[in-house]
Amino acid sequence: MKLFLLALGIVILSSCKKQDNNVDPTTQVYADISYGADVRQKEDIYLPEGRTEAKTKTVVMIHGGGWTGGDKADMKLVVDSLRKRLPGYAFININYRLASGNTNLFPTQENDVKAAIDFYLSKTSEYKVSKDLIVSGASAGGHLALLYSYKDDADKHVKAVIDFFGPTDLVAMWNAGLPQQMALASVTGKQYNQDPDLYIQSSPINAVTNQSPPTIVLQGGADPLVPPAQSTSLISILQEKSVINQLVYYPTGGHGDWSLATYSDSFEKIQAFVTANVH
């Protein structure tokens, strides 16, 4: 993940923004807004100038770290890069409680993502933004982004999902090897055979329907932690359900340790996908 963060200092040109009626002319940034009582339950909110409640959509950013580590600060370069690519969008960058020992075991992280987004949606009139969302995450954050978008978004606010190499099928992940088993046991507190339903219900791939939002998946072919089959299997299900999808596959890419050129290409692909599929 550290290489993932360091590689994202890409200078991106922003486009001009058209003025509209009833716009808020100010750019506002709110740091560490609490959406719950725990110190980890905080989010940063970035509101663009010229926003309106009718038109301004929001990108939700969710950090990785194996569900047991990481911080929203890790995703700041990603937020900054995408804000330049998508200048008319609001952004929220969220923290969630981390699993540690027997504390904050899954689905704590899933529930925190729901709580963070629900809190933000309750403020859309105040912030002068719409309730339309694009949900994005990396690694464990990609898993949480997919899970929210396919399973927990009852009101269908999510208009697209951006997944950087997130786990999609926790049963297949468990069967992939010891490193994956250790990561999953740390966050769930259980081996697969002790609670198979938890693994099944926590797998985004099992929640895909023909109403799921357009999804772009970015995956390295040499990822030692999240096997490429996690992404290709999801794409197959999306295609089967006739859901708009795109797989961006970098054959030599590892788990986020990509070159600057690869990251630049990934952001170009995301910008094009959002422009084509979110209206």
Strand content: 15-25%
Largest sheet data: 8 strands, mixed
Say how many strands there are.
8
Supply the CATH superfamily name. Alpha/Beta hydrolase fold, catalytic domain
Determine the number of helices (DSSP H or I, runs of at least 4 residues).
10
Here the CATH topology equals Rossmann fold
At the first level of CATH, what is the class? Alpha Beta
Multimer state: single chain
Q: Structural class given helices, strands, pairing?
A: alpha/beta
Which tags fit this structure?
single chain, 279 residues, alpha/beta, Rossmann fold, eight-stranded mixed beta sheet, 10 helices, 35% helix, globular
Task: Give the SSE map.
Elements: H1 2-6, E1 28-34, E2 42-47, E3 58-62, H2 76-85, E4 90-94, H3 108-121, H4 124-127, E5 133-138, H5 140-152, E6 158-164, H6 170-174, H7 178-188, H8 196-201, E7 215-220, H9 228-240, E8 245-250, H10 260-277
Parallel strand pairs: 3-4, 3-5, 5-6, 6-7, 7-8
Antiparallel strand pairs: 1-2, 2-4
Helix pairs in contact: 3-5
